[in-house]
Amino acid sequence: MDNNNSNNIKLKSNFEKRFQEIENELRDSHIGLDENFYQSINDNIGISKLIRLSKSIYIAKDNENIDKEKETQQHQIFTTQEYENGIEIHDIDNRLVFFCSDYLWNCEKPIKSLLKVYSINNCIIYCGLSELAHISHPNSSNLKNNSKSSSKSKSINNMQDFQYFKNQFIEKMELSFKKENKNKNNDDDDDDDDYEYYQDELPNISCIIKYFPLCYSQPFKNFFTIPTQKSLFPSNYFINDLKLNEYKLNKMPKEIQDNVHKTIHSFLSFLNEMKLGSVSGEDLNIYPIGPFSNYLAHEIQTTLATVTNQQQDDYHPISLLLVDRSLDLVGPSLHSENSMDRIYFSTTTPIKNNNNDNNNNNNKNFDGDCTNNYRPIINIETFFDNDNKIVSESSINECPKIISTINGSDIERHQNIDDSTNGRLWDGLITKSLKDVIMILKRRLVEIISKENINVDISSIAGPTNIQSLIALVNVLKNGVSNDNGDDDEYDGDNNKDNSNQMLMYRYNDLIEAVAAVEQTLNLSSQFHWDQLLSIEKILLLSSGYELDDNHNDDSDEEDSDEDNSEPSILSQICDIIETPISGGGDDKYYSIQEILILCVMAYSIKGLTSKLSQKHLDSLSSTLNSSSVNNNSNLSGSGGINDNNSVSTLEKIPIFSDSDEQRLINCLSDKILKENIFKDLKFLKRDSTNNNDDDDDDDKDEDERKEREGNERERMIDKNELNEILKKKVLGTLKSIAIIRQKYLNEHKSLISGGGSMMGATYSSLLSQLVKSLFENRDTKDFEKFNSSSLVGYLLGKTNWMGRSKKREKPLDNRKVLIYILGGITFTELKELTDLFEKTLKSSQYKEFSNHQFLIGSNQILTPLKLFNHLFK
Asked: Which is the most buried residue in 246, 328, 556, 588, by most CB within 10 A?
């Protein structure tokens, strides 16, 4: 194959063709989307295009049944005359196209719910996970065979078993349709009995399952996602002493099995669909950075190595850098000044309206999943009432919990605007402050009002550039009509005006949502303590820089001089924050446990093993290991001694902060929890079970009994000593694993602090920016070790220096296409930083040789402090 020709293949072309192939099936169909598919389809072809193609769109949430009343009020989008008061005129050909990014057995409820709503006679199910993903699922043996002839569990462990399961699944869908039509006036539950009773002369339903690996979306320039594993976050399970080939999916903790399995197979689908490397894995050069990245690279290369198919199509030689988010948790802990980080946080964080004055407001939302609150792009409840009339002005300011068009590509609505403004709205806001965002939105609204020929004096309405002026301009769209049609048809003027206003609201819904999102962000800023936490974080980061500077300048000091002469550590400062009321919040307002723990995550992540206390233990440990290595004739090179298998479990015992500071943190946290009586709300602090049974024994226990037992345990009173021990294990243990991970798995990029000096102190430098800068340096970087499948035997997660040794070390930029994928999430601030860094570097004459390289940044989600908290302490 000609590699030059392959480099001319557009990375998105194959994926875009797949959407074009299904447009005919979407036309005049009912469309069902689960949450991942909803977001990803909106990223690529835009929900507005689907609206024009289809009869209606439904968003399935958490396997929730969709009843007729709910879908009429919330999920139905009126596009044709076939709808009247939310009731469909039954057609001869009524088709449902359902997109499921999950396993088939997890999308059964929403599909059956839609079959109950309408008389569907043609059902097409697009499944985002391949047959191989279903067959290899570690819990597939728990699936039930639903035929009447057998009620025993049937394991899906080969293709024949899967085909049997698929046939049974299709049969259930058809049976559900027949039952609904046989007893249309009954409200009985959707049981699976009376199988033969419904095999009669009712109209047949055609149900087909197809595979559509929805593996790629590009919500922003140079940024892509793999949606089927968007909730993944690297688990601490992988920070241990196992060799790669000793990790077994069915032996992993069950709470991480599903995400790990989806990650492996969504990456395999992504590589295959986008033609990245050959089918056997050749020219796919993976550079894993971190423990989970190494495991993922192992699974990908091992699976691809078993492929015996011949390469038929052109493909992209690619360099894929996989980076564990756990290596740097400072960025997602920060409450940055970036407008998009603020807007995304405020629109994805659940709020309880009746708890606005409750100091423990955030504590009640710790374990809520803030990533599942999706709504349709046209929120009928927000803009229309049941009679299709626009509702009161105040509802214009209401904001969906998730702003769908933040990641959307709905630019087709604005074809009537000048080309200079015809772009994805949020692309232009990602680098702006909130003040700049308000100015941009105001300019766009003024242009729209002018283009729509609405007769109004804008200068008297808009006023100064603030959120109130934006609301005033939105109300002009809501109330004003175009003068293009003159004053004819006065008899029907009111109806025409209402319809025209509704069309304006629909056409520019993305701008209206943006205004609502900005207003909500400004209103909730004080409730989230965004500005106060931003100030605290700046002080802590500056202090961490001074601490590092002191460590470098005072190496000759005596051992006991640290605590006597230095300023309070950043952990000690956080303890002071726990005991101090919030600035401007009143004497009785204190920061929540969530906010305090995120500050601790930032502190431990940026500190790492850089303190003199840590280095002192590291030096002692290194000397011991080097001596042991010589005695045992170790094959490992001496420079990597700290990553040896003998030292891995010892790293956790190295102190990050002083014992007194860490004990004070535990005491402050336990005092706060007991004082506010919130222990039962903090589910991550649940007591460990007294029975250390095997996983197989746990599977045999009844789920209700387990939940009741856990509930009783939580209701039992807890004293401070017991709580302290739980906090040491559940909180301090997690924080220590965050601190040691860079020392354990990186060779060169171990510090997140750069610069320094007596006047300014050092500053935070993100790991991602350091890695990008190192890409362009003309030297061998040990952290960029190409994963070599021939070196798997004996390869440890803590990288050993013999791995992949060759005459010439391969570098990521040896390929012209480079993908950097962050496993666990990325922030808008980091995305902007990397994009700017690439643009600046490629424009420099110093790096002219890389001017034709293509760089894409990928991750599975946009990360916020609340999401990070839920991932670490769930």
From this structure: 328
Which residues contact residue 831 at a Cβ distance below 8 angstroms, ignoring those fewer than 6 apart?
Answer: 220, 223, 430, 857
In a domain, 320, yes or no: yes
Most confident of 117-131, 685-699, 794-808, 833-847: 833-847
Per the structure, the complete domain to which residue 746 belongs is given by 530-611+656-690+703-755
How many helices (H) and strands (E) would you count in the chain? 32, 15
CB atoms within 10 A of CB 206: 12
Residue 588 structure tokens: 């009785």
Q: Which pLDDT belongs to residue 760?
A: 57
Per-residue pLDDT, averaged over 847-863, amounts to 89
Whether residue 317 sits in one domain with residue 250: yes
How far apart are the C-alpha atoms of 432 and 329, rounded to whole Å? 23
Question: How confident is the model over 382-387, as a mean pLDDT?
Answer: 37
Interval 160-216: pLDDT, tens = 777 778 888 888 777 766 665 555 445 444 444 444 433 444 456 778 888 877 777
**CA-to-CA distance for 569 and 661, rounded, in angstroms?**
8
Instruction: Tell the residue number behind the tokens 């005359």, with chain if given.
Output: 81
| Mean pLDDT for the chain overall | 71
Q: How far apart are the first and last CA of the chain?
A: 49
| Average pLDDT score over residue span 35-40 | 73
- pTM of the full structure: 0.80
Closest CA to 481 of 500, 459, 494: 500
What is the DSSP code string of 775-844? HTSSS--TT-PPP-GGG-TT-BSS--TTTT--SS---GGGSSEEEEEEET-B-HHHHHHHHHHHHHHHHS
Give the pLDDT mean for 454-460: 79
Confidence of residue 627 (pLDDT cuts 50, 70, 90): low
Residue 404 has pLDDT above 60, yes or no: no
Q: Which is nearest to 859 in space by CA: 301, 222, 46?
A: 222
Evaluate whether 670 touches 727 at the Cβ level (below 8 Å): yes
Tell me, what's the pLDDT at 399?
Answer: 31
Question: Strands 223-225 and 854-859, how do they pair?
Answer: parallel
591/582 Cα distance (integer angstroms): 6
Ordered DSSP codes for 328-349: --HHHHS--S-HHHHHHHHHHS
- pLDDT tens profile 265-288: 888 888 887 888 887 788 899 999
* 112: Cβ contacts below 8 Å, ≥ 6 apart: 172, 173, 176, 190
Nearest-angstrom CA–CA distance, 252 and 553: 45
On the 0-12 / 13-18 / 19+ scale of CB atoms within 10 A, 464 is: exposed
Question: Does residue 229 share a domain with residue 98?
Answer: no
Give the pair of three-digit tokens for residue 760: 């300014």
CATH number for the domain harbouring residue 257? 3.40.50.1910
Number of domains making up the chain: 4
Q: Which two tokens stand for residue 678?
A: 């919130």
**Among 871, 865, 858, 873, which residue's Cα sits nearest to residue 342?**
865
The least confident of 130-144, 425-439, 525-539, 729-743 is 130-144
> Which element (helix H / strand E) includes 123?
strand 122-127
In degrees and rounded to multiples of 5, residue 33 shows phi and psi of -130, 135
pLDDT at residue 347, rounded to an integer = 79
Cα–Cα distances (Å) from 146 to 129, 175, 193, 224, in that order, read 22, 12, 10, 39
Element (H, E) at 857: strand 854-859
- Examine residue 649 and state whether it is found in any structural domain, yes or no: no
**Token digits for 371?**
């990533």
pLDDT (0 to 100) of residue 655: 78
The span from the CA of 323 to the CA of 310, in Å, is: 31
Residue 731 burial by Cβ neighbours in a 10 Å radius (0-12, 13-18, 19+): buried
Q: Contact 599/332 with Cβ under 8 angstroms?
A: no
- Quickly state the pLDDT bin for 660 (edges 50, 70, 90): very high
Indicate the DSSP class of residue 729: I
Domain end, chosen from 499, 524, 549, is at: 524
